[in-house]
Amino acid sequence: MSDQFLSADEANRLGALLDESKHIIVTCHVSPDGDAMGAVLAFSHYLWRKGKDAVPVVPNIFPDFLKWMPGADQVRVYEKHEAEVEPVVAAADLVVCLDFNSPDRLLGLKKPVLALDVPKVMIDHHLDPVDFCEWSVSRQDMSSTCELLFRILVQLDGLEPMSYEEAVCLYTGMMTDTGCFSYNSNRSDIYYIVGQLLTKGIDKDKIYRNVFYSYSAERFRLLGYMLYVKLENFPEYNASLMTMTRKEQKMFSHKKGDTEGFVNIPLQIQGARLSVFLREDTERPVIRVSLRSVDDFPCNAMAAEFFNGGGHLNAAGGELSCGMENAVELVCKALKKYAPLLKGK
Fold first, then answer.
1. Predicted confidence (pLDDT) at residue 344 exceeds the cutoff of 80
2. For 274-300, how does the pLDDT look when each residue is reduced to its tens digit (9 = 90+)?
3. CATH entry, 217-342, from 1.10.730.10, 3.10.310.30, 3.30.70.20, 3.30.499.10
């Protein structure tokens, strides 16, 4: 793996922006996942190591199963804490945007961030990036933003100074964004990076347990209910659908992150190529759409065409401003439209 991931001009410009800044906001997309939080916290630890006043700020709350991560207690949540967080954002002289490609993905945090007349940096691996930053690198071939960030940090500073905390956060992001290296992870250099992170003393088995062995009993009851009652299989399309209403979430004392991974489970059905999960949002009048697929079925194309979204080939999402009944009808239309691909023809 080459140590020169960025061009010399790119590396020099990023280095200069970081050197010239004192008060740095590090942020990510709404509803942060493992890759987003891993990137935000890894970069924050890097900046703290360099003596910077860095503040990790996220648009809304992140799942409980990520709160063990080093530095998670320093994260400022914008939603419902606007009066406290806006002055922190306003004091920034640099904004680092990680794991998102458009300011729209900041939701409420978008306005105070865009109001800042300061340089902005974007590091991301999603398709179709929007040009809103002075410096950006977008590499859709990367497995995760954390993989991309590892490469950048090593080029800027070398591997030797990287801290244990940075390594833990970077590994967490890589692991979660590849489904524990079960998709989008066939490049050998991914495992070279994992090997390099292991030299920092991280315990990858413990990280796995911290993320996946920390659920509540209510979450398991909810999962059982979803699989037994709500799973609808469409063998003619090699696809499945699960739906979840606000009422059902309340029945099982749903907390943010409780449904993490639900959409992946139906892919274990023999012959399955696509899994769709519809969930009524508890904070906004929308339906969140998650799609997962195997092999070459393009989740991102379906998400863009039918669900106002996008993402990666095998993992994408979107949202709908309609009721659940209409959302299910739209899924059925999407399955019919993509039937030739779903049948593998």
1. no
2. 999 999 998 889 999 999 999 999 999
3. 3.10.310.30
Question: Could you give the C-alpha distances from 174 to 62, 87, 190, 313, in angstroms and in order?
Answer: 17, 32, 9, 17
User: Burial code of 157-183, b = ≥16 C-beta within 10 A, e = fewer?
Assistant: eeeeebeebbbbbbbbbbbbbbbeeeb
Q: What is the mean pLDDT of residues 245-273?
A: 93
> Per-domain residue ranges for the chain?
8-212, 217-342
Q: What is the pTM of this model?
A: 0.89
Which tops the pLDDT comparison, 260 or 204? Answer: 204
Q: Evaluate whether the domain defined by 8-212 bears CATH number 3.90.1640.10.
A: yes
CB atoms within 10 A of CB 326: 12
- Report the alpha-carbon distance of residue 4 to residue 11 in Å, rounded: 9
